[in-house]
Task: structure prediction
Amino acid sequence: MKNKKMNIDPDSIIDIKKEGVAAALDPTVFKDGNSYCCLLGSDPQSGVFGCGATPEEAIKDWEKNLRTHLTSAGDQDEVVKFVKAIIKSIPKVVPPHVQAFYDQFRPVDRNKIRKTNK
Result:
């Protein structure tokens, strides 16, 4: 999904440590004149775009625009499909104390109990 159509000068791309959603989706952060931009997708019109005076501001603007995009776009949207694929690929790691809590409320398999009591 990375910038297929948009021609971004490789020298303008900013290598910045991303956190949270930006780390998971890895949008491209680049300098454009006096501004910094953040783009996920082919171009600003079909993807998600943000800009700001600093790379961090561009990422914050991008995250805001991503939330708006995800709530207004349909299931066939390129960005929505990409985000769903990323979410499905993230392993669900649950801390042991949380898993123990969940296990208290799971249905009991009565057949297993009968077999162990015999």
User: Anything to note?
Assistant: The chain has a mean pLDDT of 83. Residues 55-72 form the longest helix (18 residues). Strands lie at 28-32, 35-40, 48-52. The chain has five helices and three strands.
